[in-house]
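Title: Comparing notes on inverse folding

I've been comparing how different people in this forum approach sequence design from structure. To keep things fair, I'm posting one structure and asking everyone to reply with a full sequence. Here's the target:
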């Protein structure tokens, strides 16, 4: 009996560690020079300035799935662009948890990565531009912090 309890406790500990390790979002896809968002996250004014580029990152943790979509359009400033954090529902629904201007990312397939140092803050940001805090209440984007809408969590 003790062996079963110890095994169950070890499994829970490993599961918790894997959740903590998944706090960084991973690159999903880029849609370059599109007139419409294939995911339907960005519509209307966000797409009115001509072709745009959209980069997406995802996080699957604790039985939940999150998606970050950043659009490169006329609203981008020198280092920030419109970005949304969404929670994906099991039935296909989506809930926007954060909608704000965030640090512009460099996707993994971008030639600008070749010029970055392999270590240090710039390299770390390029590898992991988005992170969800351990309690799930804060989205981190470099030195930017965004409260995740508690009412929608």
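Reply #1:
Here's my take.
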């Amino acid at each position: 009996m003790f062996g079963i309890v110890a095994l169950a406790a070890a499994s829970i500990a490993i599961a918790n560690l894997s959740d903590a390790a998944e706090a960084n979002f991973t690159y999903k896809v880029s849609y370059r020079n599109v007139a419409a968002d294939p995911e339907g996250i960005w519509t209307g004014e966000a797409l009115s300035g001509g072709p745009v580029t959209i980069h997406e990152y995802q996080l699957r943790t604790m039985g939940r799935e999150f998606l970050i979509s950043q659009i490169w359009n006329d609203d981008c400033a020198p280092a920030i662009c419109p970005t949304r954090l969404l929670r994906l529902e099991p039935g296909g629904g989506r809930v926007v948890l954060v909608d704000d201007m965030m640090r512009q990312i460099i996707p993994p397939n971008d030639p600008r990565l070749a010029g970055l140092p392999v270590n240090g803050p710039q390299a770390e940001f390029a590898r992991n531009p988005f992170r969800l805090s351990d309690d799930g209440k804060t989205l981190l984007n470099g030195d930017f912090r965004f409260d995740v809408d508690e009412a929608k969590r």
